[in-house]
Amino acid sequence: MSTAQQPDPRDRPARLAVGVVGAGRVGPALAASLQLAGHRPVAVSGVSDASRRRAALMLPDVPLVPPAEVLQRADLVLLTVPDDTLPGLVEGLAETGAVRPGQLLVHTSGRYGSKVLDPALRAGGLPLALHPAMTFTGSPVDVQRLAGCSFGVTAPDELRLAAEALVIEMGGEPEWIAEESRPLYHAALALGANHLVTLVAQSMELLRAAGVEAPDRMLGPLLGAALDNALRSGDGALTGPVARGDAGTVAAHVAELREHAPQTVAGYLAMARATADRALARGLLKPELAEDLLGVLADGTPGTPGAPGTSGADGGEGDAG
User: pTM higher than 0.85 for the full model?
Assistant: First the structure.
């Protein structure tokens, strides 16, 4: 085994002074990840007490200063603020002369590409949009989770290599997203990740109401398998009473939800309709069973007793539905 000393990442050439504007959950984690690659966090801004605590935890000994001073100190500035705040922040920094020529400005908004940084570009800044496709906790575990995380990357062509290199240094995988595709890209992520949390939380509440003491333990293996199957097979992984056309079972679900959790009915019906459409298109839901099912989804009541699709007789397929 070689005993040669490994080079310190901080000794690599072209290491950058990194600043963070907006010490939410994302910025400190990205700066800490860049620090592991040898870059130097030099300044962070944060307004709320939670932001200041987060900065102290993730970036100890890095001074808290106003946004304009962050830009004075940093070669690479992470603009990690809410989507609706970003355009105004960029315009304000550019108008006040805070942006320096040759300074890298990186925002992490999924919604926007690099065009939102045009005011900084006109001031000589170098605009990059690097959006990590991950949820953040605001704790050191986020730095570990960046390993293998996909980043939605948008930048001018001449900065594409620089943008992708920064993502790789953070342990991520760059995925190029065209400027005009950013809103659709972000909607796709929100549909999958944000709505998944809502669905899981609702499912856990209903299981508790049904007397299950550990709904998280019950759902963990089921949802893990469902997610894995969906990622592997797409619509081919559809299962359960909607995909089978069990209109009676679906009607029973709707009746129970209306009695015990009326706030969940609209979401259940909307997802069931979307599932039925996809199951029909894939050939999983038989057309002769779809009529009763779609009737239930229209008004929440079952079709004629004993009609095809109302008995659930073919439900014993070993799936969770």
Answer: no
